[in-house]
Amino acid sequence: MKIGASFTLEKLQLADLVAAKRIGFDFVEFYIGDYYADIDELNLQLIAIREIIDSYDLFTIIHLAHLNTHIISDVALWTDYVDRISDEIALIGKLGLTNKLVFHGVFGHTEDPKDIPVEKLSEAKDSAISEWIKIAKQNNLQMVLENTDESVDDLKPIFKKHKDLGFTFDIGHANIIFPGTAHKTSEEKIYSMLETFKKQLKHIHLHDNFGGYSEQADVHLPIGTASIDFKRFISKLKEMKYTETITLEIYNREFLPIYLEASYIALMEIFSDCGIDP
Q1: Under 8 Å between Cβ of 58 and 17
Q2: Radius of gyration, alpha carbons of the chain
Q3: 21 occurs within a structural domain
Q4: Where residue 18 sits, what CATH number does that domain have?
Q5: Do residues 263 and 228 touch, judged by C-beta distance below 8 A?
Q6: Residue 73: helix, strand or coil by DSSP?
Q7: Which end of the chain is more exposed for a tag (fewer CB within 10 A), N or C?
Q8: Positive/negative CA dihedral, 112, 118, 121, 127
Q9: Contact, 251 vs 219, CB < 8 A?
Q10: Is residue 47 part of a domain?
Q11: 121-166: pLDDT as tens digits
Q12: More confident residue, 42 or 66
């Protein structure tokens, strides 16, 4: 397995990459965010980052924006948004930055506008995903959908429709029981999701939280500081013979290098306890 650290592209500092290399990470995951209107600016920033990453002997995974259902009611805005992400995918492919593109689908309906039928929202999302997968394939990239508010039943039809779509499993999101879900406990949700989509599983996000029932519970704490049983989880990955990438997705700008290092050390100890040599 390869272990990476997550950073927001617009807030990235050179010191972050130096810290990632010193701590021992194999790669860095960059979150581009929702509002990069200027593709030329993004191009220049990604070129600069590629040069720095190469000099530190790291590789990258790129985290795209999520499917923002709030703007679907405005056809022009939605079309521009989908086209902009398409342009980003093509640019990333041209630069040869990565082979995985992570994105949020939010198919659990927590962000759905109440004035738009669910069928129309699903159709718009499916159309966007199909377009992005097509462009990604043309550029030797794989789109990997990250679970956010979804249950297993929410995700099944998505992977059935999009055969080339990979899965990014986010354990922190799976630890939250969002309204309307069929799952009774967070652990049941975590392991049923892992088992159901193990064939699609290409990437993992690790962070901690205390569970809960809304997005406010998604606090992205360091590993081992809240309620998630990571030893059980890593043991499950060993049983599944998972050998792909894991990103530590910790949120805290002020103490990020410290929290990342503490999480990395905690994860290495869990690997050792489970008899895994990453």
Answers
A1: yes
A2: 18
A3: yes
A4: 3.20.20.150
A5: no
A6: coil
A7: C
A8: positive
A9: yes
A10: yes
A11: 889 999 999 999 999 999 999 999 999 999 999 999 999 999 999 9
A12: 42
d(CA 182, CA 8): 33
Whether 81 is covered by a domain: the verdict is yes
278 assigned to some structural domain: no
Burial of 212-232, coded b for 16+ CB within 10 Å and e otherwise, reads beeeebbebbbbbbbebebee
Q: End-to-end CA distance of the chain, in Å? A: 5
Class of residue 45 by CB neighbours under 10 A (exposed 0-12, middle 13-18, buried 19+): middle
Give the pLDDT score at 33.
Answer: 77
Q: Print the domain residue range for 268.
A: 2-273
Q: Which residue's entry shows tokens 């927001």?
A: 8
Tell me how far apart the alpha carbons of residues 180 and 270 are, in angstroms, rounded to a whole number: 33
Q: How many domains does the structure of the chain reveal?
A: 1
If you write DSSP's letter for every residue of 229-240 in order, what string do you get? -HHHHHHHHHHH
206's enclosing H/E stretch is: strand 201-206
Residues 160, 106: Cα–Cα separation, whole Å: 16
**Could you read off the pLDDT of 78-131 as tens digits, one per residue?**
998 999 999 999 999 999 999 999 999 889 988 888 888 888 888 999 999 999
* pLDDT of amino acid 37: 64
Chain length of the chain: 278
Q: Is the dihedral angle over the CA atoms 204, 242, 190, 145 positive or is it negative? A: positive
146 with 182: CB under 8 angstroms? no
Neighbouring residues of 273: CB distance < 8 A, sequence distance ≥ 6: 231
**Would you say 62 and 42 are in contact if contact means Cβ atoms under 8 Å apart?**
no
- Angle subtended by helix axes 256-273 and 230-240, to nearest 10: 60
